[in-house]
Amino acid sequence: MAVKKGDDEISNAPSQEGQLYEDKYYENDAVFGEMTGEGPNYRNVGWLGTAALMMKSQIGLGVLSIPAAFDTLGIVTGTIIMLVIAVITTWSDYMVGTFKLRHPEVYGIADVGGMLFGRPGRLFFGSTFVLYWIFIAGSGMLSISIALNAVSAHGTCTAVFVAVAAAIGFILGSIQTLGRMTWLAWGGLTCILTAIFMVTIAVGIQARPASAPQGDGPWVSDFKLAASGSFTENMTAVAMLVNAYAGTPSFFSIVSEMRNPRLYTRSLLVCQSVVTAVYIIIGCVVYYFCGSYVASPALGSAGVLMKKISYGFALPGLIVTTMLVVHLPAKYIFLIILHGSPHLTKPTLIHWTAWIGCTFGIAVIAYIVASAIPVFNNLVSLVGALLGTLMSFQPMGFMWLYDNWSQGKAERSIKWILMVCWCIFVIVSGTFLMISGTYGSIVSIIDTYNQSGGSAAWSCSDNSNST
């Protein structure tokens, strides 16, 4: 596969099992096998493109729920908890890059599960990975339908908008490599950040939130500094913050397509710094000015007109998110089907049939999930709390122990002891957040059913009215 001579990323690229680097070509990859240049270039993402893909996998629907989470936790408590989550997930994300360099044959969390727990671990984490991204893809399709409803003033049946979103997700998700998606990631990231900051500025200059009681007197925000809800409400809010950082399962796939995985940490630091800064600014400013009248998603907090404008800007970003979350599970299944086959890297009929079949299958299942399951938003929160947390905390603690336990046990240095304690903390805290967040989501689903009976399957009603 051709690579520009003199490219500093390739010149410093790590050796991988069965891989050969020459002046202009690398011929073999531990994940994708022999690459002759006839097929797609699976190793063509630079460090800046990697940062864009990382940020886009995290900045999406999650950021839009942060102000509502602060309404439950309080602005001070919420910020502290968010920073703690940022530290833990940044370390988890760092472990992804470190583990990949040590084990270049690893492509995803399923491979990690296989190394840690054998075949049952591979099957469990592989199924979890696919199921998680299918539900996130369904959520992305639903968010596109909300945006289309908001922009068009409910121009047609919502079920039609969801089908359109599924078709877009399938078409763009079928782009074969992440390297070809990086420019879309930059565009989508720019669009959604523009929409978010537009709303942030709007709530700061308007007289009062759109949903607050209207009157002639001055508006005084009723924001809280500390948490005041029940345990269930607080843990559900914490789960929202965790979900905002739950792009970790995608990072294995992203680093596997980097030209130089040794630059992964640089990309990670850029990603986590930008993501955390954006989350804190959005969460604090929007909640400070809106108080308990903040909308969720937050794009509806500044009134009908601003909601239309902001969703118009956010729409490309929501499309790119859906594209990525269709692509990731499809690529994983595609690699399983063609593993060890020359069709994996050659544009044969079998290659294209398998690839299009994978992306089409993921898009269709995600569409059915988005359209058919009542109380969908709460169900996505449940899946995020149960599966997203499971793949962003516990495995990374076990990964460090897997690589360092035997050697460190013989030496028992202070650093090793502290790291063992840290890994245990990550595993235990992740398990606690998973259980408590799942419990809170189940309670929310039950409450929603008791209040409204849930939402209808394949509904035509305007789903942007609640935002």
From TrEMBL:
Q: Where does it reside?
A: Membrane
Any one Gene Ontology MF annotation carried by this entry is: L-amino acid transmembrane transporter activity
Entry's family note: Belongs to the amino acid/polyamine transporter 2 family.
The record ties this protein, via Pfam families, to: Aa_trans
Tell me the membrane topology, using the record's own terms: Multi-pass membrane protein
What protein am I looking at? Amino acid transporter transmembrane domain-containing protein
Transmembrane intervals: 72-92, 123-147, 153-172, 184-205, 267-289, 309-328, 349-373, 379-402, 414-435
Report the residue ranges that make up the Amino acid transporter transmembrane domain in this protein.
45-442
A single GO CC term for this protein reads: membrane
Keyword annotations for this protein?
Answer: Membrane, Transmembrane, Transmembrane helix
